[in-house]
Design a protein that fits this description.
By secondary structure, the protein is α/β, with parallel strands linked by helices. It has ten helices and twelve strands. Bound molecules: iron/sulfur cluster.
Length: about 325
């Protein structure tokens, strides 16, 4: 089973070589905005899940062949559920000076052992969506053993212990957590957590639940101003791709699309192809039934008909 994928274009990280340490849709949450579908194994139980030595060997091989800006621990579920993630981070840091990024839903940092395993990542990117328990439950449909208070305490303790960059992602959904009360509550809570940056995001790819609707740019901009200097909008930032792996373009493309739905422009950037060449390439995959077209917020995405995704985050 491949544990390393990409590089794939990431709106926040540039070209990201992804490491998937979790079986598909094994997560502490079942977010309505998840772009990889419903959670099939909702758990708080950590486990090795994958053979670390094989993962490390695959990273070593892939690093030689591919260009990327960062190495991202993401996965088709919650990566901090992997109890050997610290070993993977340590091994990557011996191989390369590229930054190691942990993309997490942030739900398990109330556990000391989970915080300790993450401390050597260069960047940790957890998510927070609300200061209110009922909204938190509505958006994340968390495991019954999780409460918002635990998650917030975990993030505050992580901030005290962690010396790297803490970039807090706030996923905003129209009509759910974009009201004045919600946004004020978030601002107060985020002030207590004190991340290095606040990254405002919304749904930009087809979500698990059609109730998850995006905010328009103007509302996002209002909230960014309200949150202050640390806040930035990360929706729709252009990604610069680099040409690579021309011999197996279709395979690379399938590999990317299996992990997250992509717009034609993302494919064009990553594979250094013109839009006409992208069209040609996807035509074959559509005919063979490997991928399908899906519209979301007026944009066309290519979505895999096979399940294996990099990150549920929008
Ligand atoms: S968005 Fe992330 S945290 Fe939420 S269900 Fe999907 S994989 Fe889990």
């Amino acid at each position: 089973m491949p544990y390393v994928f990409g590089p794939v274009p990431s709106r926040r990280l540039g070209l990201s070589l992804g490491i998937d340490l979790i079986p598909p849709k094994t997560c502490t949450f079942d977010c309505i905005y998840c772009q990889v579908g419903r959670t099939t194994s909702k758990t708080l139980k950590t486990a090795p899940f994958v053979p670390v030595s094989e993962v490390i060997e695959e990273i070593r091989k892939k690093l030689v062949k591919s260009e990327s800006d960062v190495i991202t621990l993401a996965g088709s579920g919650e990566p901090t559920l992997n109890c050997e993630i610290d070993q993977v981070i340590a091994a990557i840091k011996k191989m390369t000076e590229k930054r190691v990024v942990l993309l997490t839903n942030g739900s398990l940092f109330w556990r000391e052992e989970v915080r300790k395993r993450a401390l050597n990542a260069d960047v940790i990117m957890p998510t927070l969506t609300s200061a209110f328990e009922n909204t938190f439950r509505k958006i994340h449909r968390p495991h019954s053993g999780l409460e918002l208070g635990m998650v917030v305490e975990g993030l505050k303790t992580l901030r005290q212990e962690y010396k790297g960059q803490l970039l807090l992602e706030v996923v905003l959904l129209a009509g759910i957590n974009d009201t004045g009360k919600e946004v004020e509550g978030l601002k107060t809570l985020i002030g207590q957590i004190s991340p290095d940056k606040i990254q405002l995001n919304t749904v930009v790819r087809p979500p698990a639940d059609s109730k998850a609707m995006p905010l328009d740019r103007r509302r996002l901009e209002d909230i960014r101003i309200f949150f202050g200097d640390k806040a930035e909008i990360v929706v729709g930032d252009p990604v610069t791709g680099k040409g690579k792996n021309k011999d197996s373009l279709a395979g690379s493309l399938l590999d990317m699309i299996r992990r997250r739905p992509l717009k034609p422009v993302d494919i064009s950037n990553t594979l250094a192809l013109s839009m006409e060449e992208v069209e040609d390439l996807v035509k074959g995959l559509l005919i063979k039934g490997y991928i399908r077209k899906q519209e979301h917020s007026g944009e066309i995405y290519y979505v895999s008909n096979q399940q294996s995704e990099v990150s549920g985050k929008p």
